[in-house]
Amino acid sequence: MESKMVSPLKPTILLFIASLVAAAYLTSSEAADSKPSFEDNFDIMWSEDHFTTSEDGQIWHLSLDKETGCGFQTKQRYRFGWFSMKLKLVGGDSAGVVTAYYMCTENGAGPERDELDFEFLGNRSGQPYLIQTNVYKNGTGGREMRHMLWFDPTEDFHTYSILWNNHQIVFFVDKVPVRVFKNNGEENSFFPNEKPMYLFSSIWNADDWATRGGLEKTDWKKAPFVSSYKDFNVDACQWEDPYPACVSTTAKNWWDQYDAWHLSDDQKLDYAWVQRNLVIYDYCKDTERYPTLPWECSLSPWD
Ligand SMILES: *[C@@H]1O[C@H](CO)[C@@H](O)[C@H](O)[C@H]1NC(C)=O
Ligand SMILES: *[C@@H]1O[C@H](CO)[C@@H](O)[C@H](O)[C@H]1NC(C)=O
């Protein structure tokens, strides 16, 4: 019986069946590790009509025109962890345009917010983007650093990440630590570690300050300006009121463990290279602005 059933099948039919089986298998395995959709993780903050996605929904585009910019934020808040996203920035003449990727304890610029910022400052064609990072605690910022990048961030996607635990905040570009912000462990230090944060991305016009201190204005003839995002990756303690179990530092999570409290030897080499070659501005060196430097400037990033 069995052999009779099989034998009449022609090779072409067998192939057809094989491909059906393969297709079914692919579909189920894709479903099993299918990527989360935008809506799983994020909400649009403003101007839904300036937000588009690629056909498969995995690349997200924010656009800025004369009317408005656009932004999105995570649905969840987190306290401590690893936060990562790939960004491709507005190309060409983007003076005055700021693409931001940041974490903040609230949706707004409230007087008691904590915040960790990556801001990408656009420039005239052929002139390099700068990245600015900043840290806010309880509404106070002024902790800017500016770096050049070692690549053109408008040509390809690159990964921008933040490691945040109770010992340090590290800003990474493609796994290279470009900035280390340390906690000295004292209460009331300038280190955001109490409040959970959302993660945000946005694009807006900042031609009053962004490029050469506001001298370079946004050229609206070049609008719309579009920045693209993909591969959001969060490995963190998701906040639940009143206090999620993962916050009490049981050191179960790699981002809270000893190895994540300081740079590794390899990271130190990369960090030293960045410090030597790419730093344009460091508030800890700006004694005109800070005749008495903020206390955290005395903490060593090498510890
Ligand atoms: C945070 O800042 C507000 C003023 O903006 C102040 O009243 C409050 O005491 C500050 N909180 C802490 C913990 O420093
Ligand atoms: C724009 O490019 C010029 C020339 O390289 C540079 O001096 C300036 O700092 C850049 N400005 C920004 C905001 O990137």
Automatic annotation (TrEMBL):
GO terms for biological process: cell wall biogenesis; cell wall organization; xyloglucan metabolic process. Transmembrane segments: none annotated. It comes from Morus notabilis. Glycans are attached at residue 123. Its EC number is 2.4.1.207. The keyword Signal applies. Catalyzes xyloglucan endohydrolysis (XEH) and/or endotransglycosylation (XET). Cleaves and religates xyloglucan polymers, an essential constituent of the primary cell wall, and thereby participates in cell wall construction of growing tissues. GO terms for cellular component: apoplast. This is Xyloglucan endotransglucosylase/hydrolase. PANTHER family: XYLOGLUCAN ENDOTRANSGLUCOSYLASE/HYDROLASE PROTEIN 8-RELATED. Residues 1-23 form the signal peptide. It is found in: Secreted, Cell wall; Secreted, Extracellular space, Apoplast.
